[in-house]
Amino acid sequence: MWRFFLVYVFCAFTLVRQSNGQANEYRLPMTTVPESYDLRFEFKDFNGVDNLTFSGVANITIIVVESTDVVTLNLRDLNVTDVTVAETTNDWYRLLSVNECVYLTNDERFEIRLFRNIPTSRRLLVSIKYIGSIRTDMTGLYLSSYEERDTTKLVLHCYYYYDNLYGVYLRDIVVLTKRYRWFVMTQFEPTYARRAFPCYDEPGYKTEFNISVVKQSNQIALSNMPIRYTEYG
Ligand SMILES: *[C@@H]1O[C@H](CO)[C@@H](O)[C@H](O)[C@H]1NC(C)=O
Ligand SMILES: *[C@@H]1O[C@H](CO)[C@@H](O)[C@H](O)[C@H]1NC(C)=O
Ligand SMILES: *[C@@H]1O[C@H](CO)[C@@H](O)[C@H](O)[C@H]1NC(C)=O
Ligand SMILES: *[C@@H]1O[C@H](CO)[C@@H](O)[C@H](O)[C@H]1NC(C)=O
């Protein structure tokens, strides 16, 4: 009875703390919001061992809702190779200088710090190029496989030598070589999207996405949304 009571009080305190905003250190600052994403993922020929990386481009159109000089996104285990930030309207496009980019690794965040404050209501186009890994822990973009039904029969001829007979026997040995098909799947439930692309990885931010997949000719790309167009290179 006593134990139950203590637990109850503790929970009540936790709830009060959260409603006072104490939990916000784990949330993205609400100074910018995403308007749309244009993502690009490029894969090489991969199997279960080689080429388990991909290159990505995340173009995020964001709106500044509270004047700031920092754009903070969620990101984990991605190596950013290039960042550009531009201010856009329907009529013009102007590149802004980026002061520095900082990985806040423990918070799974990435900060893009600009040289000057951006006023409220401005629209920014943030373009981030990066390298990511095809993961093996079933989160983000992860590797999976299945065994092909028609396994290849490989017949090897082997010589066996028996000492006591001084004879050589020829035997057939059948080796079934298992052939695997490799694929990459997504697991973007919170908080795993940030392992595949830099983003506002909180359920409150709902936006539209365009997604491009650059694949090898022997690979297949599948989506649960209609294809807008296909280009052949
Ligand atoms: C991202 O934005 C850059 C700069 O505007 C552009 O050159 C590039 O084509 C865009 N990439 C994607 C995938 O939209
Ligand atoms: C790795 O990717 C490169 C470029 O697509 C390709 O030439 C190479 O064969 C790939 N390696 C394997 C083991 O698939
Ligand atoms: C990112 O960089 C780290 C440190 O240099 C390295 O260990 C890791 O393999 C890189 N990841 C990718 C996907 O290139
Ligand atoms: C997606 O791309 C089309 C052009 O192909 C563009 O009209 C549309 O605005 C884009 N949407 C997003 C969310 O980037």
TrEMBL record:
Organism of provenance: Aphis craccivora
Lineage of source species: Eukaryota, Metazoa, Ecdysozoa, Arthropoda, Hexapoda
Protein name (record): Aminopeptidase N-like
One Gene Ontology term, aspect cellular component: extracellular space
Signal sequence, renumbered to the chain: 1-21
Keyword Hydrolase: yes
Domain of life: Eukaryota
UniProt keywords, alphabetically: Aminopeptidase, Hydrolase, Protease, Signal
Domain spans labelled Aminopeptidase N-like N-terminal: 33-155, 163-229
InterPro entries hit by this protein: Aminopeptidase_N-like_N (IPR045357), Aminopeptidase_N-like_N_sf (IPR042097), Peptidase_M1_aminopeptidases (IPR050344)
Record carries keyword Hydrolase: yes
GO BP terms: peptide catabolic process; proteolysis
GO molecular function: metalloaminopeptidase activity; peptide binding; zinc ion binding
